[in-house]
Amino acid sequence: MSPGTELDQFAALSEILTGEKKVDKTLAGQYLGRLKTQYATQMQALLNTFDALARDKYPLFEVKRRIVNDKTLGPLAQQIIAIWYTSEFVGADGKTPNAGTQAQFYRGLLWNVIKAHPPTHSTLKYGYWTKPPKK
Amino acid sequence: MSNDYDVAVIGAGVAGALIAWRLAEKGAKVVLIDAGEKRLEKADRRQFVKVLAELPQARKTPSRPYTEVDTDNKKFAHSPDTEDFAKPEPGKTLYFQQLGPDVFKSQYQRLIGGSTWAWRGNCPRFIPNDFKIQTRYGRGVDWPINYDDLEPWYCDAEDALGVAGDHGEWHNLFGAYRSRKFPMSKIAQAYGDLRLKQALKGARFDGVGIKLLSLPQARNSRPYDGRPACEGNSDCIPLCPIQAKYDATVHVKKALKAKATLIERAVVTELRTNSAGNVREVMFKTWDGQQHSVTGKIVVLAAHAIESTKILLMSNGGQGIANSSDQVGRNLMDHLGGEGAALMPFQVFPFRGPQSTSCIEGFRDHKYRRQFCAFRLTIGNDGWGRTKHPYDTLRELTQSGLFGQELQKELLGTVSRQLRVAYSMEQLPDPGNRVTLSPTEKDDLGVPEPQLAFRVDDYSRGGMEYAQRVIKHLFTVVGAPQEHWEFSDLKAGAYSGSGHIMGTCRMGKERRTSVVDAECRSHDHKNLFVAGSSVFPTGAPVNPTVTLAALALRTAKAIERQLTGA
Question: Whose CA is closest to B104, among B355, B329, B413?
């Protein structure tokens, strides 16, 4: 798998796992790099598996069956979701958190999904919190 | 430059900064000395924000933005943090030496600006009965002053700190009249609080109305005192990124503008008295290990309850001063707390706006105060708070096999309905709850570390049980499904600290039973004053800052009179 293909595959898999229509490629490259420092071998296995099923007629179903529900690949899939949602993931020892940069923290998907903003990073004005978020 | 001052203030937190500011503006020659660093610039705040953002969530504790920054303050002016409440790992020495039987769980910041860097800004006043619980309920001790004595100073403190509040809601609450309006209108209440308020309309428990009030806060609801209005960054603790929330650097800067001198990275090691029994010399070590001293006609000790105790006990070569009553270090108090968390039947959308904007005050002075403690309830605007962070909810959902848009839907559906109600308890003074000097453990400057004996009594525990019953009733009234309730486990003795460290140098009329008089002057040394929540004889169930600020301003006036011989 060429480096470009690897990044493309990682981004495509990330979109399925996170539920985002399009993930940022630059960020994808950063996250792939960070995850590989802890999960190099597992990442290759995961992307190989994804490569094999990406053109499947029902990729969502296959991602669930062969990656998310897979005992070996599932935990890494969870870490891919974690890094996109929070900018941090748990290292290969199963306990050490690996935090991202400030810029990555501010792009954590979780805050958008719950219709809030990352702590310390409001872009709104006084009193916005009295009304429900826009749909 | 001469090292002789009119007033030497030790500790640049809110009490010390207010006193330094007031007296410097009156023309006194003031020096303000602090163990921590001077971080007063916008760039410093930006750096703290960056440090915080780049910490893993599990390590985003109140002290960490300040201790993880590239500095030696952890070494030379250690700020206790959550790790000091945990069992030490083998070979690790914590700053607090905990003697038990229970664990003291609060912390403070040793940094110019002090613990106001990492406070939530809540500013409810005491009520009249809080000053006389011995007379009214046969518990604790009475204060040597009453609400009337402090009321004008509360007004001044609210103006100085910039407290936003609703006069109509708080005037005459349990008799706590207000002779002046808040300087700003209340902080707008969170959407979820407004929904909750509506759902609780008419609700009562044990004859007491469960009514949501807006919370007075030292947070700007409009531009005030050169600082901006709150933008709802949802991060009051550990850090407001734009200083819409008051912190004591405001008055440190004002003191400097009024020509006060600031000495940073200066850990006071002892006070020395002269033959007349006055405190003359303040001895301190700078972080390079060098010994220095200054003199003050008046010395003000405002280093917070634990560090102020250490300084008094270390003074006069370790003999201790101001302690003829043997009360220095005793009656250490906190507001013990916990929370109930539930999924609301409606969306509250947390993490938008300040971390808390509403409270329930009906149990501040309940009919059982002889049996168990009074308490307050606050409504969190931060999901399940200490119970469960959204990252934990995310992890649970992904571990259950969710991903993609299903995950997004479930995450929103869960977190947007998470709400917590926190309780905060009055703790009685207990002479056995005590700060002493560790006989064995010293910090990097050779200064003894604090040793804490602490016991949680049945008066506090009884209040916690009752508070949980109130919260369960609240959840029932609003229709929160019981299978999604989470409560601090009282059977396991669970409680948290509030960072409200009080007692240790209590004020009183009798020199036999107290450390300072009603003006916070040492009974033993007429030119020594103690400022801060360390002088509180009892702590009520409310956040201490506006009360200690009011006392500090009152003490500044007493010092001014003493300096001028008026």
Answer: B329
Sign of the torsion formed by the C-alpha atoms of B557, B558, B563 and B566: positive
- A99 Cβ under 8 Å from any chain B Cβ: yes
| B361 falls within a domain | no
CB–CB contacts below 8 A, A to B:
145
Q: Which residues of A touch B233 (CB under 8 A)?
A: 119-122
Would you call A94 an interface residue with chain B, using a CB distance cutoff of 8 Å?
no
3-state helix, strand, coil in chain B (%, to 5): 30, 20, 50
User: Which pLDDT does position B91 carry in this prediction?
Assistant: 58
So what's the ipTM on this one? 0.97
Is B566 part of any domain?
A: yes
Orientation angle between helical segments A3-18 and A74-86, nearest 10 degrees? 80
* CB pair distance less than 8 Å for A129 and B391: no
Q: How confident is the model over B354-390, as pLDDT tens digits?
A: 999 999 999 999 999 999 999 999 999 999 998 999 9
What is the CATH number for B278?
3.50.50.60
Cβ–Cβ contacts within 10 Å for residue B175, how many?
10
Domain ranges of chain A: 3-130
> Domain span at residue B267?
1-119+247-334+431-452+501-566
Q: Which sign does the torsion angle of CA B147, B152, B153, B154 carry?
A: positive
B248 Cβ partners below 8 Å, 6+ apart?
B12, B13, B14, B16, B17, B18, B112, B113, B114, B116
Please tell me which of the candidates B222, B232, B406 has its beta carbon nearest to residue A129: B232
Q: Which residues pair with B502 in a beta bridge?
A: B333
- CB of A88 within 8 Å of a chain B CB? The answer is yes
Q: B146 in a domain, yes or no?
A: no
User: In angstroms, rounded to a whole number, what is the distance separating the alpha carbons of residues B24 and B254?
Assistant: 9
Query: Does the CB of B190 have a partner CB in chain A at under 8 Å?
Result: yes
Half-sphere exposure of B48 (CA within 13 A, CB side): 26
Distance CA B117, CA B73 (A): 15
Q: How many domains does chain B have?
A: 1
From chain B residues 191-220, the ones with a CB under 8 A of any chain A CB are 191, 194
Whether the Cβ atoms of residue B120 and residue B474 lie closer than 8 Å to each other: no
Query: Of the candidates A16, A117, A129, which has its C-beta nearest B404's C-beta?
Result: A16
B239/A100 touch (CB, cutoff 8 Å), yes or no: no
Token pair in block for residue B374: 């009074």
Which of B239, B403, B408 is opposite residue A113, by nearest beta carbon? B408
Is B408 in contact with A19 (Cβ distance < 8 A)? yes
Chain A residues close to B230, C-beta within 8 Å: 126
* Nearest-angstrom CA–CA distance, B462 and B139: 14
Nearest chain B residue to A15 by CA distance is B404
The verdict on a CB contact (< 8 Å) between B235 and A110 is no
CB B458 within 8 A of CB B490: no
Tell me whether residue B369 is in a domain: no
The pLDDT tens digits of the residues spanning B284-331 come to: 999 999 999 999 999 999 999 999 999 999 999 999 999 999 999 999
Positive/negative CA dihedral, B39, B44, B50, B51 = negative
A66 part of contact set with chain B, CB < 8 Å: no
A129 contacts B352? CB cut-off 8 A: yes
In this predicted structure, what is the pLDDT of residue A3?
47
> What is d(CA B545, CA B157) in angstroms, rounded to the nearest whole number?
9
Using CB atoms within 10 Å of the CB of residue B367, give its burial: 0 to 12 exposed, 13 to 18 middle, 19+ buried.
exposed
Q: A115 CB near a chain B CB, below 8 Å?
A: yes
